[in-house]
Amino acid sequence: MDWPPDFYLMREGRGCPMCGGGRPDETPFGVRIFAGKRSDAYLQRSAIQRGYSLVIWRGHHVAEPTQLTPDEAAGYWLEVLRVARAIEQELKPVKMNFNILGNSVPHLHTHVIPRYAIDPKPTHPFPFPPDDPPPFEKAGFRTDVALLRQALGWSGSVS
After folding, report:
1. Would you tell me how many other CB atoms lie within 10 Å of the CB of residue 120?
2. CA–CA dist 123, 87 (Å, integer)
3. In sequence order, which residues have a C-beta less than 8 Å from that of residue 28 and are 6 or more positions away?
4. pLDDT in tens, 15-29
5. Interval 77-120: pLDDT, tens
6. What is the distance between the alpha carbons of residues 97 and 74, in angstroms, rounded to a whole number?
7. Which of 110, 83, 88 is nearest to 98 (CA)?
8. What is the bridge-based pairing of β-strands 109-115 and 53-57?
9. What is the pTM of this model?
């Protein structure tokens, strides 16, 4: 099976939805909990795992972390770790997972996935469900947004 033709264009930055979308406070997928110099972090709405967040590179388009300069890489990874520390501090997972994929959208982003004591497969990569689960209950989700924004020292609006 071949890669979709638009994958190659997006990999070059043409039609990349993560570049073209700007830096919104909310997307259909998540709510921004952090806006840094190098990245934005979005708590994911889908009830996959509490605290599951995406940290998205915000700069010139890159598909791989190897395309960053040393200063860009240092700044990006420090911001990824800052988000992960806030999740650890506030949500108390047993373990954190960091996935860099980009097979669907070839723009540098890191999946930050907390793993809890009650885990479907604790010694394996996180088992994403085959179908999209419903969103988290709104009140609890908004509470987590506020909690993580406070821990990250970011006062974006909560809608």
Report:
1. 10
2. 20
3. 45
4. 999 999 889 999 999
5. 999 999 999 999 999 999 999 999 999 999 999 999 999 999 88
6. 19
7. 110
8. antiparallel
9. 0.93
